[in-house]
Amino acid sequence: MERYLELWAQSLPSLLTATLQVTIPLTLISFLLALIIGLLASAARNLGPYNPLNWLATGFVWFFRGTPLLVQLFLIFYGLPRLGLTLDTWPAAIIALSLNTGAYVAETFRSAYASIPRGQFEAARTLNFTKLQTLRHVVIPQATRIALPPLGNDLIDLVKGTSLVSVISMVDLFQAGRQVAARTFEPLAMYLEVAAIYLVIFTLLSLAQRYLEKRTSRYVRTANA
Known about the structure:
Blueprint: H1 2-44, H2 52-66, H3 69-79, H4 89-114, H5 118-126, H6 131-161, H7 173-184, H8 187-224
Helix pairs in contact: 1-2, 1-4, 1-7, 1-8, 2-4, 3-4, 4-6, 6-8, 7-8
């Protein structure tokens, strides 16, 4: 056990460096882009069954939800060069993670919007609300409260999904742990430490998610009052 404690203490700086320089920035950038992609795709899917943008958005969600993230990373990083488009590791990772998570976010937004009772929109029309007022007072407060839990889950899944970028030679938290394990011949100790760091990130995100859910619910009750 003393050997493990010493190894964990020695390897912790390099693991934290990889976490702060790669895993967390990659997660934040990809999730921000995924929110934008998901919002656009969700809006496009509400344009009507015969709109080409609807077809494009539906195909996008179908493909990226139906194929593994690992396959998407390989297609973007190793496959696109065959078409003359070569990407560095960071752009390739961000594109793959953003598109993959964006497909799930699009479904989250679509479900949140669809779950709002139609009577709410009819009431807004009765009150002569404009589209902007309906969006502000009816759609956003309720859709945010509904979408927040699954969005938090999407973010947590994205953090764990960043471990796959090691296959395109990015030194994230998982890859840093692999390198130390290969050097010290102590895979059990190193992967336990990597798992512990992921659990810390997961715990912090879960606490933040619960806090935001409470704040959102309080806001909705205040607005309805």
